[in-house]
Fold this protein.
Amino acid sequence: MKADVSEELRMLDGMARDFAARELVEEREEHDRYPFAPLYDDVLAKSLEVGFFSIMLPEDAGGSAEPVTALCLVLDELCRADASLGGAVFTQALAQEILRLAGAEELLAREAEGDGDLAQALIAFPSYDNPSEAGNCARASRGEKGYELSGEVEYVVLGGLAAHALLPARVEGMEGFAFFLVDTGHEGFTASEPVLSLGMHACPAVDLTLSGVPARLVGEERKGGQYFEAAVDRLSVAAAAVATGIMKGSFTDALEYCRQRKQGGRHIIEWSEVRMLLSSMAVSCKVADMLVECAARAVDRGEPGWELASRAAALQAQSLAPEVTSNGIQLLGGYGYMKDYGQEKRFRDAKQAQPLLGITPLRRLKYIRSIIDGEAAW
């Protein structure tokens, strides 16, 4: 997705590619052992240093002039090597976008002024749920000193690392939910052991339990759902970039393997059956790449219909990724199932990436509901 980007974005893309090759590829298998092995804190710290966690900040605070396109370029490159880091970057971007939509610019400015401390810079968020649908919310009550949160919020990404968490909570006596920013260091805040997920193991997540934790209301009480849906409009294409990067990584490794592997006296890439599988993978990767490029450009430029373009890109790319990565396993034969070849991890990552921003079937129903309600289909 580099056909129509500025020189600044080309430099960012190159930096992300070099970073992935240097920091992720060789240690991919080791990183994937988390939570049974240490988390790659040094890689996360370096990601903060080079700006991957600040892309969605205002431009004068270190963000990009074309933030969604920039985010998609970075996620594509990172996820070709290891989607776990891409999931962490995506979660941070989603939390920042909700803060921006809720008018909490001062919080974003404060984040930008940080001293490089990783925990202080990160914001934990349940990026795999739509709180309106899953009910994955805490309870908010008003006290003399402000709001307090109690209850449980499951699968909060970065929840064991970040000094702050942006959490959905239902306010007593009101419909819907609101977002609140809490300090994870409070004595009433408890994080579980890291949750072992199907894929993207090193995108750390925990279940949170809160008991009377002081919280700052972000935006308005009744508008949490509006903020989230607006963020989904903008960042669905970034979720598509995660899936696209996973597919591209699978195809690249499969192609290289088929060029080198000999069987029956010739390289297997000469077999028509192998070429058919590679062709299917290549076409799916190209289609997903074009979707991300067009949708990201539409979002940043505010072109008519950009909301549906962003959502459609995610739905299509996320549906393609499991099939593509399954073919990647098949092309490597028995090696495809071995952890040190990376293909089985990509299949797990592709499935893990599907519910980003909420359950896929419900997102599909919401997509067609928008068209039924009068939004132009194309």
User: Anything to note?
Assistant: The beta strands are 123-124, 138-143, 146-157, 164-171, 178-183, 189-191, 205-218, 262-263, 266-267. The mean pLDDT is 93.
